Amino acid sequence: MNETLETIYNEYHKYIYHLCLKLTRNQVEAEDLMQEVWVKVVRYESYVKEVDHVKAWLTTICMNTFRDRYRKNVRRSKHVVIQPDTLEVPILDLIPADTMSAEQILELEDMSQIVQEKISQLDAIYQKTVLYFYVHQYSLVEIAEIMKVSIGTVKSRLFRAKQRLKELLTSDNMLEEYVHTA
Predict the structure, then answer these.
(1) 163: number of Cβ within 10 Å
(2) Is 115 exposed, middle or buried (0-12, 13-18, 19+ CB in 10 A)?
């Protein structure tokens, strides 16, 4: 670890730990999260020179790492069922089937086709950003490098693209059964 990262660690490790603890509400998970955050900081050390507000940058990394872990755990928990003691139904009946019904497959294909069509109606810059982020699953940093813009610009483009996509989907009368506005 170079001197810059060592200085950053010494100055902010307590702050990051307390933030992780506040997010996870569990000491062991907070320590794991903190370790992931510092691994990312080391991975992106080349960006440290470009960062104006180190604390804000670290907070963003911490929040994004927490969100990623949370989403990953939610996806995993869909496949894990804990059977209560008083349940009269066998546990295997509660686990969702790995195979989808023909109706579910057709609905998924329809939605996929509709979303692809609506994405194609976006401006080219928004199309690229959405595809890089959601399809190719590039990080915001990677997209910023590819598109030669700041991370803030990438975030703005993603936000605007999602807003425009929502507008396109909700304005299409044929999609009323699919679109849930909240």
Answers:
(1) 11
(2) middle
Plot region of 107 (φ>0 → left; ψ -120 to 50 → alpha; else → beta):
alpha
Distance between CA atoms of 181 and 172, rounded to whole angstroms?
13
User: Angle formed by the axes of helices 54-77 and 3-24, to 10°?
Assistant: 50
Distance CA 43, CA 63 (A): 17
Name the nearest CA neighbour of 60 among 7, 30, 16.
16
Give the pLDDT confidence of 64-103 residue by residue, as tens digits. 888 888 777 766 665 555 545 554 555 555 555 556 667 7
* pTM of the shown model: 0.43
Q: What is the pLDDT of residues 100-127, one digit of tens each?
A: 667 767 777 777 788 888 888 999 999 9
**Which structural domain, as residue segments, surrounds residue 109?**
99-175
What CATH number is associated with residue 64?
A: 1.10.1740.10
Residue at 153 is within a domain: yes
